[in-house]
Amino acid sequence: MEFLPTKADTLNDILRWLRDVRHFRTDPVAEPVIDRLRAAMDMAPSVGNSRPWRVLRVMDPGKRAAVQEIFERCNHEAAAGYDDVTKAEYVRLKPVGLRDAPVHLAVFSD
């Protein structure tokens, strides 16, 4: 496969778009979309095609709430390390995706 300039432009657009997403859709995600996502993860490069990641779908509302609580605690601890100006900006931009996301996928690395 030849990596043409148009493909490089598309890749740059994708990487730029993925850098910082602040607005998420909250409507349900269809199972075929989840299946395509899992297939894409299986194609991601890894040394020796080892795929050292495991992905769990978190569906239980209690577990989803626990993940959000852990994130909020860690986010608060991280904010404490910044000076007042930087901390104010950091706190203002904190993500709310965990609360609103219709699907939670937990990704682990072996």
Quickly list its features.
two-stranded antiparallel ribbon, NADH Oxidase, single chain, 110 residues, 5 helices, mainly alpha
How is this structure best described in words?
The protein has one domain: NADH Oxidase (3-Layer(aba) Sandwich), CATH 3.40.109. Helix content is 54%, strand content 11%. The protein contains five helices and two strands, in the order ααβαααβ. The protein has a two-stranded antiparallel ribbon with strand order 1-2. It is globular. The mean pLDDT is 86.
Number of self-contained structural domains = 1
CATH C-level class is Alpha Beta
Listing every helix as H and every strand as E from the N terminus to the C terminus, the arrangement reads HHEHHHE
Low-confidence stretches are: none
DSSP strand count: 2
Please, what is the average pLDDT? 86
The helix tally amounts to 5
Radius of gyration: 18 Å
Structural class: mainly alpha
The profile of the biggest β sheet is: 2 strands, antiparallel
* Strand proportion: 5-15%
- The end-to-end distance, rounded to whole angstroms, is 31 Å
CATH topology: NADH Oxidase
- Strand line-up in the sheet with most strands: 1-2
CATH superfamily: NADH Oxidase
Helix content: 40-55%
Tell me, briefly, the overall form. globular
Would you identify the CATH architecture? 3-Layer(aba) Sandwich
